[in-house]
Amino acid sequence: MWSVLLALTVTSVLGEVVNVHVDNGVEQKFSFEVDYQNDKFLLDGKPFQYVSGSFHYFRTPKQYWRDRLRKMRVAGLNAISTYVEWSLHQPFENEWHWSGDADLVEFLNIAQEENLLVLLRPGPYICAERDFGGLPFWLLTRVPDIRLRTNDPRYMKYVEAYWDELFKRVEPLLRGNGGPIIMVQIENEYGSYGCDTQYMNRLRDITKEKIGTKALLYTTDGNSGNLLRCGSVPGVYATIDFGTNVNVTSSFETMRLYQPQGPFVNSEFYPGWLTHWQERFSRVKTNAVAKTLDEMLSVGASVNFYMFYGGTNFGYTAGANGDENAYSPHITSYDYDAPLTEAGDPTPKYFEIRNVISKYFQLPNMPLPTVSPKGNYGSVLLSPVVNLFEPLGRQVFATVVLENSEPLTFEALGLSHWLVLYEADLVSRPADPAILHANVRDRGLIYVDDYLIGTLSRTNKMYDIPIEYPHAQKLKILIENQGRLNFGRGLRDFKGVSGVTLNQIPLGPWKMTGYSLDNITLVRSLPAKTMENGTLRKGPVLLRGTFIISGEPRDTYLNTSDWGKGVAFINEHNLGRYWPLVGPQMTLYVPACFLRTGENELILVELEYIPNSKRMILQTTPILDYQP
Prior knowledge:
The chain is α+β, with helices and mostly antiparallel strands and 628 residues long. 17% of the residues lie in helices and 30% in strands.
């Protein structure tokens, strides 16, 4: 029989525009609405309650998207939530990425194929513990005094250009078009940042122009009346977020202050929490998660777990918390103590959550997930190849070299990350020792006459160091960008060094050499050489080693114990930062899709210390909670 499909547009009883498809004479309406009279959501006209989980496509390789999404569905979830990361899709003003691990449309299609609806959170600011809250660094280079997250037309110009590119891709996937996207968030927890009503109204209007009524617009803020006052927007559904340490009833009463009718919603329910370097790994007890979830579902609330699957901050994508007076960078892992581990394995928390959900929803008839086998690939001997400061290191890996009377920021140099070497002559001084002062953002290794004398740190508020060499002539300051602030009013987080003085006398002019270290394959052309072990007094060193995998590769973990601080690459994939000296993360997650049968390559950029063994181990278990 021929199948006839017609598309019509009608108006629902709630005043919403609904798409109607006619297939073989049977009408099917696609819509997502609020039944304010009965305090319910309506999916395609029928009462609906969602249990969703956050999963950010940019935190795991594309090859694993379906696996993670299917495990979420098996847990009983009927929706997922994801941010859209502007900086991923537009890393430079005239450069767009929408394929590979940035293929958002493919991610959304897979979610729909796995019978999951989608809560889309396009920002433009997302926080997410990502560098600069997901904003592209180049915003700071175009307009140095730009007023982020406001109605500043210089900011909105770029926001609108980004959303033009984004929404033309996701518009076909809105629920009104038969797609999975039922809700689209306006900004992100804006009440925690500002109170620019013109900005929020403008974002609402732009989004409505893009999607019409084919998905429901919503906001998310903390469960405080003050936060909701500035974060909510007229005509947009206001929701709240909270974890296990609050009273559910009173929290939803707070939501009612700005959303007097409609279903209760916790848009970020925290089954785990984030972790910074130099602190204990954060955990949330399973029984507390189960109890609070049960309370919310029992009153008909819709819930989104943040995070249900966390993943990894590969490369230099981890951000930091703090402000002008405090700075705490995030670890590379975004395991988050979530129900699914960083490697996508189910935890006891996963199964307990599933048990609670089963009291309110019919679970899918699908096999339960198990812990995947991991690869034990033994130790890898690493051979030093080149020092970044020597002429060959500069020739091969320096991406920008400039001179200026004052030290320039990373952003002014056009560098989004990772290292910049600042060099200047030391002026004569009347005192010995002399005190060097430098405002570092974020960590500075100090070299005098090519010899490391110490470290300055924004985290530890160390900005002064004595120089005890009266005849020293040369100063080097290697600045590491450890991640831009992702939350609060300190978003305009320029990187570099400023206010450099010796006994209060300004230093300069400056030579600046930037190392982004994106094209690490150049190491292969360099022969191994003999270098010092222990503390790297002469500067950072690149090391290279190989290991063999026989058979199908499996996920594994790179143990960085006994090393100093740096970044690791496997087969050109940047695994992210390691810093075992302070913890708590000791291992870096290595997805099997980064590996290959036969010879594999490990490259390190080590900043501070090489152990005598010169080895790292690829093991089957993670270490995320080590306390030195």
